[in-house]
């Protein structure tokens, strides 16, 4: 199910030359902005539009709650060298990006158990992929989604974001 958030676009017209208003009309996303916060500008509600929220993005809180949960698997898609120098999120397993499709698609339950010491995830289990900063995690999430792992998510702050908050 897709989730949507209602946003409003407002047309800001230049009434006075203030530092906030630039030359000519500008578009401002006015979520919780009050007209008195826009000093020297004439705020007119122009249209409302809907933007899709990416439901395949995990927050720091979701990842932290997923540590040591058997039905949620945290997968580090970085190379082994990177993990040796930086560490990894507790209870995560390492499947480098180049191996994701093969592991999820072809590896047997017994092989997975032997290699990763965990049960192979089913297509109904939640997978959270992360890397250093998000690019490889996004690729891994897309591969998993195409293979039918519909609860796959990416942790976009990645290891850098995790390491900052721990």
**What are the segments in which pLDDT stays under 50 over at least 5 consecutive residues?**
1-52
* Rg calculated over all Cα atoms: 22 Å
What gap, in angstroms, lies between the N and C termini? Answer: 32 Å
Describe the global form. Answer: globular
Helix percent band: 25-40%
Count of β-strands: 7
Classify the secondary structure makeup into a structural class: alpha/beta
State the major sheet: 4 strands, parallel
The number of helices is 6
Strands in their spatial order, largest beta sheet: 5-4-6-7
In percent, how much strand structure appears in the residues?
25-35%
Helix-strand string: EEEHEHEHHEHEH
- Mean pLDDT over the residues: 76
Supply the key terms.
166 residues; four-stranded parallel β-sheet; alpha/beta; globular; disordered N terminus; three-stranded antiparallel β-sheet; 6 helices
What is the strand and helix layout of this fold?
Elements: E1 4-14, E2 26-29, E3 41-52, H1 60-66, E4 72-76, H2 80-86, E5 93-94, H3 100-106, H4 109-116, E6 126-130, H5 135-146, E7 152-154, H6 158-165
Parallel strand pairs: 4-5, 4-6, 6-7
Antiparallel strand pairs: 1-2, 1-3
Word description of this protein:
This protein is of the alpha/beta class and 166 residues long. The chain is 30% helix and 25% strand. The protein contains six helices and seven strands. The strands form two sheets. Strands 5-4-6-7 form a four-stranded parallel beta sheet, with helices on one face. Strand 4 (72-76), helix 2 and strand 5 (93-94) form a beta-alpha-beta unit. The radius of gyration is 22 Å and the shape is globular. It starts with a strand and ends with a helix.
């Amino acid at each position: 199910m897709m989730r949507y958030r209602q946003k409003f676009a407002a047309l800001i017209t230049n009434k006075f030359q203030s530092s906030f208003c630039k030359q000519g009309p500008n578009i401002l996303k006015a979520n919780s902005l009050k007209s008195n916060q826009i000093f020297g500008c004439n705020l007119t509600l122009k249209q409302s539009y809907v933007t899709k929220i990416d439901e395949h993005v995990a927050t720091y809180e979701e990842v932290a709650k997923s540590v040591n949960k058997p039905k949620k698997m945290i997968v580090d898609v970085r190379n082994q060298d990177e993990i040796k120098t930086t560490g990894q999120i507790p209870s995560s397993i390492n499947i480098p990006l180049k191996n994701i499709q093969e592991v999820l698609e072809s590896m047997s339950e017994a092989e997975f158990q032997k290699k990763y010491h965990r049960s192979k995830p089913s297509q109904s289990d939640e997978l959270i992929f992360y890397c250093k900063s998000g690019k490889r995690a996004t690729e891994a999430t897309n591969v998993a989604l195409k293979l039918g792992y519909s609860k796959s998510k990416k942790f976009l702050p990645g290891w850098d974001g995790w390491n900052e908050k721990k």
